[in-house]
Design goal:
Elements lengths: L1 H4 L6 E7 L5 E2 L1 H4 L1 H7 L9 E7 L8 E9 L4 H11 L8 E13 L4 E12 L3 H11 L10 E4 L1 H8 L21 E9 L5 H13 L3 E7 L21 E9 L6 H14 L30 H12 L2 H12 L19
Antiparallel strand pairs: 1-2, 1-3, 4-6, 4-7, 5-6, 5-9, 8-10, 9-10
Helix pairs in contact: 7-8, 9-10
Length: about 350
């Protein structure tokens, strides 16, 4: 729902945090700077978050979801190029269409594979209005009533999460995946549509990999209406976010081939994504970007990942870290470092 209401962090009303001195602070007692920092700046850098108070937002009684699959042979390349031009900037903010891209086998005998793009949508409204929105904004997808399912908002979440039809929503309370797996993820943000020739280069590299998946999530709507400095999360003026994934099931499987593949794809994408810095999403923590030393990571060293996650907000986060946790008690591989005080 972020194209309608922004991020969860944009809707936080209050929080409680245990600080480095063991005090339990709320919004009022922690002060505006720390309250700003923990909403998207990596709360684990500043203390232990006990709870969040989130502003509830209205959703209609009827929400519509859909999935439309297209292969390369069915024109997926041109369709995805068109999606880039409309998903964030032209479509109603009540509509979110993400795209899942992965290789699929088309001939089990020969093992021939192609690329499948799955356009998966959630619309805050009934199917009749959705079809009108699509006919105006993205007719190329040829969405039909048959492709669409009306449901409650909660059931639409189950649908997008990939649960089988009829699964009880209580499964969400389990808080754990149904099976153990291993994966490596990286991320990018895109400001200008990636040309078709570059998309063909992506397909080539995806077909060379195994267990690969790319997810494109559109931004725009409410996301583009919020200032880059309103919260630490700065990725507001972009068309979409890319998540690259490769996974394996066995602990003894050769992980090196998976990691090598995703790094090569990431390198290939450099000309087509944000630059100076090449932005990344903090919740897909990518240790390839760099990690903290055990002691005294310099600001220059930490900026290798800090500016990618937070852009210029990184430097405000450093000042707040230095104020509330000057000895860097709360730290991890990519936590915000404090300024090192000279003796």
């Amino acid at each position: 729902m972020m194209r309608k209401y922004g991020l969860a962090a944009d809707n936080v009303l209050d929080a409680r945090i245990v600080d480095v001195n063991g005090r339990i602070l709320d919004r009022k007692t922690m002060g505006k700077d720390l309250f700003w920092a923990i909403r998207g700046g990596g709360g684990a850098s500043f203390g232990v978050i006990l709870w969040w108070k989130i502003k509830l937002v209205p959703v209609p009684s009827t929400v519509t979801v859909f999935s439309v699959s297209k292969t390369l042979e069915q024109g997926a390349t041109k369709l995805l190029h068109r999606w880039q031009q409309v998903a964030a900037t032209k479509l109603d903010k009540h509509l979110n269409i993400r795209v899942l891209i992965q290789p699929t086998v088309v001939d089990s005998i020969s093992g021939k594979r192609t690329i499948t793009t799955l356009f998966q949508g959630q619309f805050l409204g009934a199917v009749k209005r959705l079809l009108n929105v699509m006919e105006t904004g993205f007719p190329e997808l040829n969405l039909t009533r048959k492709d669409s399912t009306e449901s409650s908002w909660l059931n639409s979440v189950m649908y997008i999460a990939g649960y089988a039809n009829g699964t009880r929503p209580e499964v969400l309370l389990q808080g754990k995946p149904p099976f153990k797996s291993y994966f490596k993820a990286k991320s990018d943000f895109v400001k200008d549509p990636i040309p078709e020739t570059a998309l063909e280069g992506i397909w080539k590299r995806m077909l060379e990999g195994t267990s690969s998946l790319i997810i494109w999530n559109p931004y725009g709507g409410a996301m583009s209406e919020i200032s880059e400095s309103a919260l630490p999360f700065p990725h507001r003026k972009v068309l979409f976010k890319i998540q690259y994934l490769t996974g394996w099931l066995a602990a003894n499987e050769d992980e090196a081939k998976h990691i090598d593949w995703i790094r090569k794809l990431y390198s290939y994408m450099a000309p087509y994504v944000t630059k100076s810095p090449r932005q990344a999403y903090v919740n897909y923590r990518d240790l390839d970007l760099g990690i903290n030393k055990k002691k005294n990571t310099s600001i220059a060293e930490a900026s290798a990942w800090g500016t990618r996650y937070f852009k210029d907000n990184f430097y405000r986060l450093i000042k707040i870290k230095t104020k509330v946790d000057p000895h860097n008690f709360f730290r991890h591989e990519q936590s915000i470092p404090p300024l090192v005080r000279k003796a």
